[in-house]
Specification:
about 280 residues; mainly alpha; Four Helix Bundle (Hemerythrin (Met), subunit A); 2 domains; 11 helices; globular; CHAD domain-containing protein; CHAD_dom
């Protein structure tokens, strides 16, 4: 089931129904006996979709917006530790598969990262996330989002403008924090476009490109986190020469991803300034 409006319903009802269905999917993932990697990933993804929904309807939600957004944000944070551990290993594996590391270097780096992190997040984090998502559902069930097509178009235009501003900041600084902040806006805008596409068909056109851009920026962030983790490894677990070598490979991948993401962003948001191919 996709996160999209049902065009057969009245708009206000369709907006609320889409949010509640997505939150129920997140809760179902966390209520199984032993949530695994995919369960955690999907629950966090649902939180991002719902926070995009909140931003789309912020004017009509008023005080409820900040409250529900905080519950979803804090719930996702409880699930982040396990993902950070897994992502560091997966990103390191990307370097190995790209033949940027030898097998011996990869094994040594993998051991150093394993000693840096706890084995996984425990059940208390899952329980805390579930409780926060359940509280968010109570408030969403009582919400009465009011919007018409014109208002939705206006909010989409606001999201697009935020993406354009984020592009300009990221392009000027190339800083990891600015690229990550831009990525958040890209994700929110993409989810919003997909949500309203059944009632605003033209909103569907940028969704595929936004998804590609979000994934590119997500990979950039993963490499940035890997670099931070490597920096934290104690000297006794990681020789300085190997740390420097791995960090250089990480920087190279980040530079390439940043360049490609900004080029795609210019095509999407500032086509008059996009480089000719």
């Amino acid at each position: 089931m996709t996160f999209a409006l049902d065009p057969r319903q009245l708009l206000d009802r369709a907006l609320q129904a889409a949010a509640l269905a997505e939150l129920d999917r997140a809760l179902a993932r966390l209520e199984c006996a032993a949530p695994g990697r995919e369960d955690i990933h999907d629950a966090r993804k649902s939180s991002k979709k719902l926070r995009a929904w909140l931003r789309l309807l912020k004017p009509s939600l008023k005080r409820r917006y900040r409250l529900v957004d905080g519950l979803l944000r804090d719930g996702a944070r409880h699930l982040a530790a396990r993902r950070d551990i897994e992502v560091a290993g997966q990103t390191l594996l990307r370097l190995r598969r790209g033949r940027h590391l030898t097998a011996a270097e990869f094994r040594m780096l993998e051991r150093a990262l394993a000693r840096l992190h706890p084995p996984s997040s425990d059940a208390r984090d899952i329980d805390a996330a579930r409780a926060l998502y359940t509280a968010a559902r109570v408030y969403l069930a009582e919400a009465a989002p009011a919007a018409d097509i014109a208002q939705l178009r206006k909010r989409l235009a606001c999201s697009q403008a935020k993406c354009r501003r984020g592009l300009r900041r990221a392009s000027a600084s190339r800083a990891a924090d600015d690229l990550h902040a831009w990525r958040k806006q890209i994700k929110y805008y993409g989810y919003q476009c997909a949500l309203v596409a059944p009632v605003i068909p033209e909103a569907l056109s940028p969704v595929a490109a936004l998804k590609s851009l979000g994934e590119m920026l997500g990979l950039h962030h993963d490499f940035h986190l890997l670099g931070e983790h490597l920096e934290r490894c104690p000297p006794q677990t990681l020789p300085a020469a190997l740390r420097q070598h791995a960090q250089e490979r990480v920087r190279q991948r980040m530079d390439r991803l940043a360049r490609d993401a900004i080029r795609l962003g210019e095509v999407l948001f500032e086509p008059e300034h996009a480089p000719r191919r």
